[in-house]
Amino acid sequence: MTPNTKIFTDLLKESRAFLTVSASEYGAGDKAAKALHILPDSMLGILVRHCETVACAGGLLHLYGGEQLLTRSTKSGKLFSELLFLGDLGDGGLFAVSRIDTAIAKRGEMLFLSPGALNFEPMGIDTAEFIRWALESREETLKGVWLTGEILSPRALKKHITAKLDLLDRLDMLKTEGDA
Questions:
Q1: At what angle do helices 43-50 and 3-14 cross, to 10 degrees?
Q2: What are φ and ψ of residue 32, in 5° steps?
Q3: For residues 88 and 86, what is the distance between their CA atoms, to the nearest angstrom?
Q4: What is the mean pLDDT of residues 26-41?
Q5: Which of 43, 62, 71, 83 could form a disulfide with 128 if both were Cys (CB 3.0 to 4.6 A apart)?
Q6: How many angstroms separate the CA atoms of 3 and 164, rounded?
């Protein structure tokens, strides 16, 4: 088991009460990962290879894997954008990852399209950080922190995600120290 597979599996176990996971059909996830040139042992690769969709935080946030990711990012079998559409919010926000270095984002950087916005904006985090945050999100957190009816800025979203990941890292460190 690779380190990312263990992290992903542990996240699914710890958050199972808050997630609805639909498994990818046998071989479909591998086909999607190959077609989209996603490393199989990366956090994104594990999501794509093993899950079709993951509904997080009581269904407020959806992640795409397997055929869902392939369908949303290709047309007639060809990639139609420099973005992979990785997930969405119940209110219409859209998450994507940049496949190449562009003027607005580096390769592998997450982007967010706010409801009503015209352009994606960089979030300043990578896909692994985004997936970890999404799997650990709770409905009350999303509703209370940033699904308040206001247009969410990528900067505010990055600040929230970074703070949450820092807290989780500190809790993991305390847990490890307590186990020693």
A1: 60
A2: -65, -45
A3: 7
A4: 80
A5: 43
A6: 21
How many other C-beta atoms can be found within 10 angstroms of the C-beta atom of residue 72?
Answer: 17
The verdict on pTM exceeding 0.85 is no
The answer to whether the Cα torsion of 13, 14, 17, 20 is positive or negative is negative
pLDDT tens digit string along 146-169?
444 444 555 666 666 666 666 666
Give which of 136, 14, 135 is closest to 65, Cα–Cα.
Answer: 135
**Strand ranges inside the chain, DSSP E:** 20-23, 51-56, 61-64, 74-75, 78-79, 83-89, 94-98, 109-113, 121-126
Rg (CA), the chain: 16
- Neighbour tally for 37: CB within 10 Å: 9
Q: Tokens representing 42?
A: 């990366």
Is the CB of residue 125 less than 8 Å from the CB of residue 158? yes
Give Cα 156 distance to the centre of its chain.
17
- For position 176, what pLDDT does the model report? 63
Tokens of 149: 């009816």
Three-state DSSP at 86 gives strand
